[in-house]
Amino acid sequence: MLRLGIDVGGTFIKAGVVDESYAIVHKVSVPTEGDAGYRPVVQNIARVAELAAREAGRSVKDFALVGIGIPGLLNPRTGVVVSAPNLNGWRDVPFLDEIRNLLPAPVRVGNDANCAVVGETLAGAAKGNENVVMLTLGTGVGGGIITDGRLFTGGHGLGAELGHMVLHMDGETCGCGMDGCIEAYCSVTSLVKQTRRAMEADPTSAMHGYAREAGLVDGRTAFECSKMGDKAAAKVVEAYCRYLARSIGSLVTAFRPDVVLIGGGLSNQRAYLMDKLNALLPKYVFASDVIGVPPVIRATLGNDAGTIGAAYLDRM
Ligand SMILES: [Zn+2]
User: Fold this and answer.
1) Least crowded by CB within 10 Å, which of 76, 136, 159, 205?
2) CA of 277 to the centre of ligand 1 (A)
3) Model confidence pTM above 0.70
4) 3-state secondary structure the chain
5) What class has domain 3-121+304-315?
6) Is the pLDDT of residue 88 over 90?
7) Mind listing the pLDDT tens digit for each residue in 154-170?
8) What does the mean pLDDT of the chain come to?
9) What is the 143 CA–ligand 1 centroid distance (Å)?
10) 264 CA to middle of ligand 1, Å?
11) Which CATH superfamily is domain 129-298 in?
């Protein structure tokens, strides 16, 4: 039977019809319209489900499951979204109850980063593994954990917020309001901040010319200039790799995954990021000399991971 995975983003709600071999056979999207408040978003989610069903020649009741990934803090069992800053600040909304009333199919909800790790474990880079930790590096740092083949979300489904574990005591301020979070060092947003600082400190750095040509400073600036031999850029990359390797090291010590996945565009930096993480990791993992360390690899499904994982939330 077909399933529907829905990925609710700040700008678009994307839906994918997913078949039994985890392939997305049809995609549609509608604007989120989050500025207008909570209700219109719920209506748009129902609308995208109907649209996807119709375009796939079905109706919503034909789906074995409609799974919905939400960018926020939520209890997957009660379906209450406690907070979702990217959705215009949803607070304590009974999301699952309301969307269930609009959709004539079984519905599950999950955090978007959790949907991504489920998707990658069922059908992507971590396929066949029972223990997986995934970090998605973007505007923030999303985290997901699979232990013994089950999605681990902590008490009330409100844990596993890996990006907000502390890397540095009294460190950089994080978007969440705390100091020193992994996200405040390892997100692409933070990397850009580190890159800008290095540029300000060194007017001779090749990063200035590179950024001028590209029209912006982004997550690639330091990596690409490091490849060209720029010293200031190399320092940024070096520090960033250490922040990330240390973060991964603690997660490996806690969860002992068989594999660590890195999602987001930065994971395409093979030699300058992925290889370095693998080389640094043993230093930062407890008893690595005795039990080794898992490989750190690139997630392969991109945005589809969240769609596939949402559609199969009941599998893990
Ligand atoms: Zn934080």
Assistant:
1) 159
2) 22
3) yes
4) CCEEEEEECCCEEEEEEECCCCCEEEEEEEECCHHHCHHHHHHHHHHHHHHHHHHCCCCHHHCCCEEEEECCEECCCCCCEEEEHHHCCEEEECHHHHHHHHCCCCEEEEEHHHHHHHHHHHHCCCCCCCCEEEEEECCCEEEEEEECCEECCCHHHCCCCHHHCECCCCCCECCCCCECECHHHHCHHHHHHHHHHHHHHCCCCHHHHHHHHHCCCCCCHHHHHHHCCCHHHHHHHHHHHHHHHHHHHHHHHHHCCCEEEEECHHHHCHHHHHHHHHHHHHHHCCCHHHHCCCCEEECCCCCHHHHHHHHCHHHC
5) alpha beta
6) no
7) 999 999 999 999 999 99
8) 96
9) 12
10) 18
11) ATPase, nucleotide binding domain (3.30.420.40)
